[in-house]
Amino acid sequence: MNQALYQDRIVALAKSKTGAGTLAAPTAKAMRDNPLCGDRVSIEIRLDGEGRIAELAHKVRGCALCEASAAALAPRAIGHTAAQVAELRREIDAVLSGASGGTGDFAAFAPVAEHRSRRDCVTLPFEALRAALGD
């Protein structure tokens, strides 16, 4: 196991399972797979009357990076519109490219910048959320 990739913060995020589960009445949902590694993410959201994410739940069958990414994304996406979620995607892309250190839990993914093949594990929850939002 690569210690830089699976540092304590990533493991703690993955174990936290923040936002894991399902919603009683989602307004939208989407699933995305990574055929290269087998990760699968399902996202359910409930939007409020202004198009903001009121609730978000996810199910992840995947590696610790994918689980940690979904756990980091879930609380950050609440209250956001599709455009604001796109900003979150740009932030994680900047972290994964090494252009930025990121903020909050997104900073935990900075070591992934050195492992190009693992970047999709981190972005898969973002792709599922984008699909749920209809983008």
What is the share of helical residues? 25-40%
* Percentage of residues in strands: 15-25%
Identify low-pLDDT runs.
none
Q: Report the sheet with the most strands, covering strand number, pairing sense and barrel closure.
A: 3 strands, antiparallel
Q: What can you tell me about this protein's structure?
A:
- The protein is α+β, with helices and mostly antiparallel strands.
- 39% of the residues lie in helices and 17% in strands.
- The chain has four helices and three strands, in the order αβββααα.
- It has a three-stranded antiparallel beta sheet with strand order 1-2-3.
- A hairpin with a 5-residue loop joins strand 2 and strand 3.
- Helix 3 (82-97) runs antiparallel to helix 4 (119-132).
- The longest helix has 16 residues, at 82-97.
- The chain is globular and about 40 Å long.
- The termini are far apart.
- The mean pLDDT is 94.
Protein traits:
4 helices; 3-stranded antiparallel β-sheet; single chain; 135 residues; globular; alpha+beta; 3 strands
Helix/strand layout:
Blueprint: H1 8-16, E1 28-33, E2 40-47, E3 53-61, H2 64-77, H3 82-97, H4 119-132
Antiparallel strand pairs: 1-2, 2-3
Quick structural overview:
The chain has 135 residues and is α+β, with helices and mostly antiparallel strands. The protein has 4 helices and 3 strands, in the order αβββααα.
